[in-house]
Design a protein that fits this description.
Blueprint: E1 27-33, E2 36-39, E3 42-45, E4 48-53, E5 56-61, E6 71-73, E7 81-86, E8 89-94, H1 111-119, H2 121-137, H3 144-159, H4 166-185
Helix pairs in contact: 1-2, 2-4, 3-4
Length: 186
């Protein structure tokens, strides 16, 4: 792109076709443009670069000469933004949702809370009450292993979303079914 062209007041598209032998490690700049255009009394700095950092794409640009490449979009899970032009300068629109810690999204939360949001409080409350009923009904020496396993899974589900993991969900739902069978038998 010629340095005489002022991109900060126009929409533009960067089409990039890459052929890489492997994903670049660390910080690799794919291409960049550094320029300071002095048009009338304003200094138009359109220095920017397109980089891959640890396998994620980023677009950096300079808002002012002092701060350097402090503005960017891309790469980070919930920080990804849309590059826009505001008042003749590059800017980005970034979601206000800010739970991420850079590239990691933590999904550790209460599985029963998630179920309550998805299915409603009353059905989930009914399930939890039934599970506790089955536990209290089956507290006997012969059922200790099953009850301990169920309480472990129940406790883990309070701190993490294990109820949605298929392998854990099988155990979580089989133990109450086993206890229900024992309750109905007695």
């Amino acid at each position: 792109i010629p340095n005489e062209i002022n991109l900060s007041q126009k929409d533009f598209e960067i089409a990039l076709k890459l052929k890489l032998n492997n994903i670049p490690k660390g910080n690799e700049t794919l291409f960049s443009q550094s320029s300071i255009i002095n048009s009338s009394e304003f200094i138009n700095n359109q220095s920017w670069k397109w980089s891959i950092i640890d396998g994620r794409m980023y677009f950096f640009w300079i808002g002012d000469v002092v701060s350097g490449y402090s503005n960017f979009v891309g790469g980070q899970s919930l920080r990804s933004g849309k590059l826009i032009s505001t008042s003749g300068s590059f800017n980005s629109v970034i979601s206000n949702f800010s739970l991420s810690q850079y590239d990691e999204i933590t999904t550790s939360h209460n599985g029963f809370l998630t179920m309550s949001v998805e299915y409603g409080l009353l059905p989930v409350l009914f399930i939890v009450i039934c599970i506790f009923y089955l536990i209290f009904k089956n507290i006997k020496k012969e059922n200790n292993l099953e009850i301990v396993i169920l309480l472990m899974l129940f406790t883990q589900n309070l701190t993490n979303d294990l109820i949605y993991a298929p392998d854990v969900a099988i155990y979580f739902w089989l133990v109450p079914i086993f206890l229900l069978k024992r309750t109905l038998k007695n």
